[in-house]
Sequence to fold (235 residues):
Amino acid sequence: MPDTHYLIYIFLFIAALLSVITRKLTLTGGITGFIVGALIYLGAGYNGVSMLAIFFIAGTLATSFGRRQKQTIKPESSQRTAGQVFANGGVAAILGLGAWLYPEQSSIMQLMIAGSLASAIADTLSSELGTIYGQTFYNILTLKPDQRGLDGVISFEGTHIGIWGSALIGVVYCCKNGVDFRFAYIVVAGTIGNLTDSVLGAKLERKHLIGNNTVNFLNTLTGAIVCLLLAQLFA
Fold:
């Protein structure tokens, strides 16, 4: 294995360690984050790690922005646990392992990785920044005005920000793979995944039938599947 591969693993280890030291992740969250990053790199190389890094950096900044205001609406810990890390990156990690085990399918799996991370970043940015910048909030099922911060509640501003987040992942993906219709697949996948997250939140999470980690995992899985379907449909 070339030395450059070891440098990436060292980089991922240092990033995980710093995340734990700065209390962005718990210890188990940091370990899980390293494993997730390593598996994504295994199957998607530098491009996969770059997409993961963009998601983590953008998500961390969005979560930190306006924290005091958001804590008064929906208090939560600033540290991400192993469950939360896997919920957002687990699908991408599994696909990374799959791309490594089945190299003949690596191209489509790498696109699915982009779709899953687009969904993750869209959900994070729309939730964290939509809470701050949103003007009017609606229940995604009834489209009636609802309380800001509740599960399944969306705003136009937050949804719009989420679309831009998906586009950011699409840009990073296209830096390696070239600009074509796959960029649109990623943006559509991220947006559908984000809206699916809100539907699950309103329908199931609000009733305590499933937890937030399950919702986030299904969100990212939806993004990956949408990319797969779009690629097959327009092949």
The first helix runs from residue 3 to 21. The chain has a mean pLDDT of 93. Helices lie at 3-21, 27-64, 67-73, 82-101, 106-133, 156-177, 181-205, 212-233. The first strand starts at residue 137 and ends at 139.
